[in-house]
Amino acid sequence: MKLQMLTFILLFSIFHTSHTTPLNYTSIFSFGDSLADTGNALINSKSDPGFARLPYGMTYFMHPTGRCSDGRLIVDFMANAFGLPFLPPYLAHGQNIRQGVNFAVAGATALDPAFFQGLLGDGGLPFTNLSLSTQLRWFEKLKPSLCNTTTACAGYFSKSLFLVGEIGGNDYNYFFLLGGKSSKEVKSYVPKVVGAIVAAIERLVKNGAVNLLVPGILPFGCSSAYLTVFYSPNKEEYEPRTGCLKWLNAFAKYHNALLLRALDELRRKYPRARIMYADYYGASIRIGLSPRHFGKLSFLDYICTFGHLVAAGGT
Ligand SMILES: *[C@@H]1O[C@H](CO)[C@@H](O)[C@H](O)[C@H]1NC(C)=O
Ligand SMILES: *[C@@H]1O[C@H](CO)[C@@H](O)[C@H](O)[C@H]1NC(C)=O
Ligand SMILES: *[C@@H]1O[C@H](CO)[C@@H](O)[C@H](O)[C@H]1NC(C)=O
């Protein structure tokens, strides 16, 4: 069975950013994949996607909203923390956008679809072609309705938070799960994936963004899909504390290390920008190890299914 698309979302609310004074942002602009999508993929889908039905949305909105979750996403909790409304998805045109817009699309990749097509053939095309660069284009198209002059934009964006990601996780889903590529080969693409994130940050900074929060990717060696597809009878391959696959978590850490290094370079290049890192990896491991400390949060991964049900391994 073809693995159409996999993204996973862990519910958690606490994460650490680098030590900068918190601002009370008056708007949020969000880019990324299913970890942040509040409806774009659903609006964009022609067929009936699995996530248009319960249990999606069950615990908070009481109906499916297009979020790849039964409840709220991290970006929803952020909006809440700043007294802002939930971000309207960009594709739901005609919304009030002064307090932010969400450009994230479930299934989106950091790299453009053409790269996957070149590597994996037509069967390797990502579920969505609304990749990071398309989301950036959307933002640039929308920008004149937010502010028209450099001065006006500087004033407005000085109080905006740009959430750039999580993005990149799907690139690895396509390489590993759809493409069946080896760890060694996929490793050689990590600088490309990080480079696409860097390019997005630079493009946003040039458009006036000042406050940017850039999350790393999740420990996908803990994802049930990966645990199934890459099952090993050898206990040595699993982390003793978490039960997650060592080699895949090491891979996620490798991506995050390259991303951190790139963010350091960007901070030097753009000293006036506040470029923060969000450790989604560390936060999800903490929740996985002691779910009871986090109220109702649990170490679950959510999979948005498109058309065909994503069946990892078994069926
Ligand atoms: C931020 O400002 C909003 C609107 O003025 C307010 O409702 C909210 O409580 C403030 N949040 C913090 C953390 O100060
Ligand atoms: C994505 O693909 C659809 C269908 O092939 C096409 O109509 C659309 O223009 C593409 N969008 C982008 C941003 O490439
Ligand atoms: C910027 O200019 C365009 C075209 O004149 C106008 O439609 C838009 O409302 C303006 N945006 C702002 C924020 O004033």
Automatic annotation (TrEMBL):
Cleavable signal peptide: 1-20
Molecular function GO labels: hydrolase activity, acting on ester bonds
Source taxon at top rank: Eukaryota
InterPro entries: GDSL, SGNH_hydro_sf, SGNH_plant_lipase-like
SUPFAM superfamilies named among the record's database cross-references: SGNH hydrolase (SSF52266)
Keyword Signal on entry: yes
Keywords: Glycoprotein, Hydrolase, Signal
Similarity remark: Belongs to the 'GDSL' lipolytic enzyme family.
PANTHER family the record matches: OS06G0129600 PROTEIN, ZINC FINGER FYVE DOMAIN CONTAINING PROTEIN
Name the UniProt record assigns to this protein: GDSL esterase/lipase
Provenance organism: Cocos nucifera
